[in-house]
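Table 4 source record.
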Amino acid sequence: MKTPNQMGWLFVLPVVALVAFNALIPMMTVVNYSVQETFGNNIFLWEGLGWFEKLLHSERFHAALGRQFLFTAIILAIEVPLGVIIALAMPRKGFWVPVCLVTMALPMLIPWNVVGAMWNIFTLPDIGLLGYLMNSVLGVPYDMTQDPVAAWMTIIVMDVWHWTSLVVLLAYAGLVSIPDAYYQAARIDGASPWSVFRYIQLPKMKTVLTIAILLRFMDSFNIYTEPFVLTGGGPGNSTTLLSIDLVKIALGQFDLGPAAAMSLIYFAITLLVSWLFYTLMTKDDSK
């Protein structure tokens, strides 16, 4: 009997070491802070699960978490259908294919802080192009620095502009992988465009759409840089998402214990909801 070669594990060890250094060790530090209180000078007092209990009964935490879920729900409801529609409209052959693909990829190449700064300047009521157009040309009152509704609309439009391309590219990859034989059979049977989409294209895109939804959920649920640069969580606390509130507690107030406990709850919610998404979307495949 041939002995299996275990030397392949040597190629995995650098990855394990890198993950341990970048994820596990910082996680252990966060867990350590979440059960203690510190006043500086390397002095720690045992707190136990006290920070977790206080957070779970905190109205501030509930409000920030609610805003985070609302933002993510709106983003998924807009970007996934819009990305599929754009992918369906894109050409499958010819000169315009690379042009469309490059155009779709451009927003994702811009750094997150630059996106927030761009949209901040773009939407300022006095000097921004959008602010001037809305207020002076169209006569529609628009000031994201004072109006919570305008601030919410702005961060949503900004995220849709920035990340719908990801859904488009994934959906397009699923569409171009469908063999022409399926479409030929549909034409022979006289299937309508809706039937082609429902019974051919949508099932074949299921895997890539699962990936797209998971990626967009995790990214939008943990978003920080773009809305922070754009609105700073304002006006007031109207756009203070959970990620922004976490940074305020950790760095602004220097409450490391509550911030560590919040980050662990944040991580647990992200992991749980991602697992539920994946389980629900792949339950038919396991049968």
